[in-house]
Amino acid sequence: MTLKACKKEEKMDREFQKKFKFEGSINVLTRMMVDPAATEKRGGAKNLPLRRGEILDVIQFTNQEQILCRNSQRRYGYVPQAVMLPL
């Protein structure tokens, strides 16, 4: 990874921590897949856009309805737990 890419990732992580008021280090708890039968959704202010079959890194289980996740483009957001499948 180049120095420029590394700095970009660090910046995105700092923005995530500020936006979601997340304290501490960002650790991946597990990986889950978006249900292939689910409808694709566009992201909102704090919601992550969903693509069928996409594998997401779980950062935090926030409550019964939502999970805080990161996708392959290092974007962060909430995902409904109902559309997530364990790997």
Folded structure, characterized:
This protein has one domain (4-86): SH3 Domains (SH3 type barrels), CATH 2.30.30. The chain starts with a helix and ends with a strand. The chain has one helix at residues 3-19, and strands at 30-34, 55-61, 66-70, 76-80, 84-86. It has 87 residues and is of the alpha+beta class. It has one helix and five strands; from the N terminus they run αβββββ. It is 20% helix and 29% strand. The protein has a five-stranded antiparallel sheet with strand order 4-3-2-1-5, with no helix packed on it. A hairpin with a 5-residue loop joins β3 (66-70) and β4. It comes from Sylvietta virens (Green crombec). InterPro entries: FYB1/2-like, hSH3, SH3-like_dom_sf.
Write the layout of secondary structure elements.
Elements: H1 3-19, E1 30-34, E2 55-61, E3 66-70, E4 76-80, E5 84-86
Antiparallel strand pairs: 1-2, 1-5, 2-3, 3-4
Q: What characteristics describe this protein?
A:
87 residues; alpha+beta; SH3 type barrels; 5-stranded antiparallel beta sheet; 1 helix; hSH3; FYB1/2-like; PRAM protein; SH3-like_dom_sf; phosphoprotein
Q: And the CATH topology?
A: SH3 type barrels
Structural class: alpha+beta
What gross morphology would you assign?
A: globular
Please count the helical segments. Answer: 1
Distance, first to last CA: 27 Å
Low-confidence stretches: none
Strand order of the largest sheet: 4-3-2-1-5
Tell me the fraction of residues in β-strands, as a range: 25-35%
- Kindly give the count of domains: 1
- Helical amount: 10-25%
CATH evolutionary superfamily: SH3 Domains
CATH class (first level) name: Mainly Beta
Looking at the overall shape, the CATH architecture is Roll
Instruction: Tell me the major beta sheet.
Output: 5 strands, antiparallel
SSE pattern: HEEEEE
The count of β-strands is 5
Radius of gyration: 13 Å
GO biological process, one term: protein localization to plasma membrane
Domain Helically-extended SH3: 16-85
InterPro entries: FYB1/2-like (IPR043443), hSH3 (IPR029294), SH3-like_dom_sf (IPR036028)
GO cellular component, one term: plasma membrane
